[in-house]
């Protein structure tokens, strides 16, 4: 045995390995940087049972029949993640009987390999991302030893065909387009079946009632992203071993069976993006000794359906629940008071977005210490934002954890930076608070700036007033901040420029005033639309400039300039009044003083006044009677 796996060995696989070590039974070269061609001398190792060259950059290599010429003892062949090309004739008869064949991400680029028909003992077959196209052969069903099969990410067409004794099979992301979900031999019962993944195909038709009878021991059923219609059959409740049920992004209608979830094994339910109606089932075990016992359910996603009614209080029994996503439905009523850290101690994601929920945001939500995504946007919620949101521990410290995040199977859609994105494998790093499009009033709690791991904060389209918290710069991990369409006033805090991770900012349509800070990260966010609708804002990137373009970001020089301007205005006002008063005094004494000092001028002035008075009296006496006779 020679094991050199997971080092940093580079170069080619040496020819002498096959020439010198004729007694070698196990050779492992996986996880290195080997490249180039693979020597045909490896095909001389007639005692070889285990050959592992996986996880090497061998994309230039081509494997043909000569590489396997004398490998008559070979049982395990691992060459996945090498990107090499398999060039084998469809009439080739291999000298070995494999038990394990791993060739994912190799290049077959043709129909399903015909030579696999000769492998009577093969148990594990992994050929995903191999460029296989066309329909699966009928004999594939009769490979009795096959247990675990992965043929995902190919171009396989036709109906899904299952080996008679399979345990797990993945045919996801192919071009299957059948109207039923059983194999060509419809009378076969797959007692060993545990997992079926047919996601990302074009499978249509309905979920058959007899699916339970065909695969009674099924633990994983993934049919997401297909064209399946009709309702979810009641027989789905009979799967006592079912752990994962993923039917999202189909055309399912009708109600969700209330018996669904009575299996003690159910952990993962994903029914989002369908046309399901009715109310939310309880997802709990059957009634035992006057109590409802809890389940192991960790993931419930029912978003983007037409579910109505209130969120049932029986969900309080789901103590293992980590994700509750019922957004984009027609749910009404208030946010339930049972959503607390006591009833749902490990809840990490709560999405109630885009429903018809009303009332206020209950302070009980603050006890959800593990919550990392809180999305209550697009509802009719009122009242103020609870100041206790600062107590959510998972938002101010990162905790890595093992949970129900099953690779790409789980999906949570969040609107970030104005764009709806689906988060899967990176979901555990997302920390988000979205309370947008409600009727919230009051100010933004200062304590919200303690959520130092918060990546996205959206409070837009509310009636929030007051100032933006001056300590907003403490949100060091913030990538997106949207406070638009509110009634916020005051200046933009200088500390906002210290958020170096900030990529998206929207403060538009508020009553903000003063100069836009220009320091640090804010200089890169130069979209004037981010500040539109604030008539008293000035400075870059707006067209309206402040009085002094040389104001520093910290505002110190601006304050000094303002003081100088105020002082200058006071001096101008004082001089204005002095000039007016002196002019009035000069004119007054020039006239009155002259009349007072010179007697002849004084007599002439008063005679003139008497003459004007007499003339006005005569004119009135003479002309008024004439006017009256004219009108009569």
From TrEMBL:
Q: Which PROSITE patterns match?
A: LRR (PS51450)
Give a yes or no for keyword Transmembrane helix in this entry: yes
User: Where does this chain mainly localize?
Assistant: membrane
Q: Indicate where this protein resides in the cell.
A: Cell membrane
Higher taxonomy: Eukaryota, Viridiplantae, Streptophyta, Embryophyta, Tracheophyta
Q: Which domain of life is it from?
A: Eukaryota
Membrane-crossing ranges are 574-597
Please provide the record's keywords in A-Z order: Cell membrane, Glycoprotein, Leucine-rich repeat, Membrane, Repeat, Signal, Transmembrane, Transmembrane helix
Q: Which Pfam families match?
A: LRR_1, LRR_8
* PANTHER family noted in UniProt: LRR RECEPTOR-LIKE KINASE, RECEPTOR LIKE PROTEIN 30-LIKE
What protein name applies here? Receptor-like protein EIX2 isoform X1
Tell me which family the UniProt entry assigns to this protein: Belongs to the RLP family.
Topology in the membrane? Single-pass type I membrane protein
């Amino acid at each position: 045995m020679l094991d050199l796996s997971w080092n940093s060995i580079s170069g080619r696989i040496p020819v002498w390995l096959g020439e010198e070590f004729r007694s070698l039974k196990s050779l492992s070269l996986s996880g290195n940087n080997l490249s180039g061609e693979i020597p045909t001398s490896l095909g001389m190792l007639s005692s070889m049972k285990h050959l592992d060259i996986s996880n090497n950059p061998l994309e230039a290599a081509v494997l043909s029949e000569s590489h396997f010429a004398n490998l008559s003892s070979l049982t395990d062949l691992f060459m996945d993640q090498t990107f090499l090309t398999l060039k084998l004739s469809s009439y080739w008869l291999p000298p070995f009987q494999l038990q394990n064949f791993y060739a994912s991400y190799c290049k077959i680029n043709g129909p399903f390999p015909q030579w696999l028909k000769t492998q009577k003992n093969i148990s594990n077959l992994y050929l995903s991302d191999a460029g296989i196209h066309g329909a699966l052969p009928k004999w594939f069903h009769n490979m009795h030893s096959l247990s675990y099969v992965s043929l995902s990410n190919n171009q396989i067409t036709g109906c899904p065909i299952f080996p008679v004794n399979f345990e797990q099979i993945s045919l996801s992301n192919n071009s299957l387009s059948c109207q039923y979900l059983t194999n060509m031999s419809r009378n076969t019962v797959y007692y060993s079946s545990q997992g079926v993944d047919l996601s990302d195909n074009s499978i249509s038709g309905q979920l058959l009632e007899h699916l339970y009878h065909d695969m009674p021991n099924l633990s994983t059923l993934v049919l997401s992203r297909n064209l399946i219609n009709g309702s979810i059959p009641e027989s789905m409740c009979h799967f006592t071993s079912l752990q994962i049920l993923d039917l999202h992004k189909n055309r399912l209608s009708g109600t969700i069976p209330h018996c669904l979830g009575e299996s003690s094994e159910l952990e993962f339910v994903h029914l989002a993006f369908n046309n399901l109606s009715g109310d939310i089932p309880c997802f709990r075990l059957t009634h035992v000794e006057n109590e409802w016992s809890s389940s192991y359910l960790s993931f419930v996603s029912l978003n983007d359906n037409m579910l109505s009614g209130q969120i049932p209080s029986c969900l309080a029994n789901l103590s293992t629940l980590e994700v509750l996503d019922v957004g984009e439905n027609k749910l009404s009523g208030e946010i339930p008071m049972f959503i607390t850290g006591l009833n749902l101690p490990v809840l990490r994601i709560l999405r109630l977005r885009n429903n018809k929920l009303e009332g206020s945001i209950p302070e009980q939500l603050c006890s959800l210490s593990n919550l990392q995504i809180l999305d209550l946007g697009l509802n009719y919620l009122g009242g103020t934002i609870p100041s206790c949101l600062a107590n959510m521990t998972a938002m101010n410290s990162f905790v890595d954890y093992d949970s129900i995040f099953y690779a790409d199977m789980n999906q949570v859609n969040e609107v970030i930076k104005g764009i709806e994105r689906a988060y899967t494998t990176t979901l555990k790093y997302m920390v988000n608070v979205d309370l947008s499009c409600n009727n919230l009033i009051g100010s933004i709690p200062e304590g919200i700036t303690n959520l130092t791991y918060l990546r996205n904060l959206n409070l837009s389209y509310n009636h929030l007033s007051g100032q933006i918290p001056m300590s907003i710069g403490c949100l060091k991990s913030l990538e997106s901040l949207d406070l638009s369409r509110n009634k916020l006033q005051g200046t933009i805090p200088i500390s906002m420029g210290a958020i170096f991770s900030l990529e998206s900012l929207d403060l538009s349509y508020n009553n903000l005033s003063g100069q836009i800070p220009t320091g640090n990260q804010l200089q890169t966010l130069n979209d004037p639309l981010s500040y539109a609708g604030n008539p008293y804002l000035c400075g870059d990137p707006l067209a309206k400039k402040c009085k002094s373009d040389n104001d520093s970001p910290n505002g110190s020089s601006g304050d000094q300039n303002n003081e100088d301007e105020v002082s200058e205005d006071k001096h101008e006002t004082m001089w204005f009044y002095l000039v007016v008063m002196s002019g009035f005094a000069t004119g007054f004494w020039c006239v009155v003083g002259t009349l007072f000092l010179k007697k002849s001028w004084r007599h002439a002035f008063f005679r003139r006044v008497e003459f004007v008075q007499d003339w006005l009296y005569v004119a009135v006496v003479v002309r008024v009677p004439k006017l009256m006779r004219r009108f009569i």
